[in-house]
């Protein structure tokens, strides 16, 4: 099963178009999680206390961990996120806060290093950017570090198109150039 984590918001999202081309090529069952449809709660002290309590009891079947369990069980992960403010939409960070659960998606070694508990053997990160100044440190780079070091998903691939909002850019050509290679 492919878990498609969709952080796209615009009806004519170019990022989603790339992601859909990839999903078509992968040709497997897809479960889509539309982040814009999730009302993430505030990660305040009450929330953290409840979470810590459940983790300490090993009560990982609680609803609070449903998204984390789903992430840990997926065979392949596809994340689609437009490039926003050198990074990605805040709802993707909220999703990460929800799925990073000690005992579900990762655990710690006695030396204090994270060890992955996720089944997926590959994570694709799909993004598009308006300009061509696109450092990947705070977007894809962050997700890659999490995937490889927390979740245990070593195989990570970036699929991207940039420069889409530059005046005169041939949006179709830029997208198709990448679509034919996925
Ligand atoms: C809130 C917001 C922040 C953005 N920040 C950047 C940015 O830092 N750098 C950049 O090149 N483009 C930026 N853009 C442009 C988007 O990356 C670009 O339009 C992208 O293709 C949008 O993807 P979509 O068509 O899937 O919505 C931003 C757009 C929005 C709406």
Present as ligands are:
flavin mononucleotide
| First and last CA, distance | 19 Å
CA-based gyration radius: 17 Å
CATH fold-type name: Rossmann fold
Query: Order of strands in the sheet with the most strands?
Result: 2-1-3-6-7
Can you say what the CATH homologous superfamily is?
Flavodoxin domain
Order of helical and strand elements: EHEHHEHEEEHEH
* Oligomeric organization of the protein chains: single chain
- List low-pLDDT spans: none
Give a topology summary.
Layout: E1 2-6, H1 14-26, E2 30-34, H2 45-57, H3 66-73, E3 76-80, H4 90-99, E4 106-108, E5 114-116, E6 122-128, H5 140-151, E7 156-161, H6 171-179
Parallel strand pairs: 1-2, 1-3, 3-6, 6-7
Antiparallel strand pairs: 4-5
The structure holds flavin mononucleotide (FMN).
Flavin mononucleotide (FMN) binds at residues 8, 10, 13-16, 82-86, 128-131, 134, 164-165.
Report a brief summary of the structure:
With 182 residues, the chain is α/β, with parallel strands linked by helices.
Structure description:
The chain is α/β, with parallel strands linked by helices. Helices cover about 35% and strands about 20% of the residues. It has one domain (about 1-180): Rossmann fold. The chain contains 6 helices and 7 strands, in the order βαβααβαβββαβα. The strands form 2 sheets. The protein has a 5-stranded parallel sheet, with helices on both faces. Strands 4-5 form a two-stranded antiparallel ribbon. Strand 1, helix 1 (about 15-25) and strand 2 form a beta-alpha-beta unit. The structure holds flavin mononucleotide (FMN). Flavin mononucleotide binds near residues 13, 164 and 165.
């Amino acid at each position: 099963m492919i878990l498609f984590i969709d952080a796209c918001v615009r009806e004519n999202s170019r990022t989603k178009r790339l992601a859909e081309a990839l999903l078509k090529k992968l040709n497997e069952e897809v479960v889509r999680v539309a982040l814009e449809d999730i009302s993430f709660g505030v990660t305040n002290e009450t929330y953290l206390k409840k979470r810590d309590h459940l983790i300490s009891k090993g009560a990982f079947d609680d609803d609070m961990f449903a998204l984390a369990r789903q992430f840990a069980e997926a065979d392949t992960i596809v994340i689609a996120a437009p490039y926003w403010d050198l990074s990605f939409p805040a709802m993707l960070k909220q999703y990460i806060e929800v799925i990073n659960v000690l005992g579900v998606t990762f655990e710690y070694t006695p030396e204090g290093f994270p060890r992955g508990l996720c089944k997926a053997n590959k994570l694709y990160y799909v993004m598009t950017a308006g300009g061509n100044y696109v450092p990947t440190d705070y977007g894809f780079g962050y997700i890659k570090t999490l995937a490889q070091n927390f979740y245990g998903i070593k195989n990570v691939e970036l699929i991207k198109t940039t420069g889409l909002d530059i005046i005169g850019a041939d949006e179709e050509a830029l997208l198709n150039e990448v679509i034919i290679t996925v």
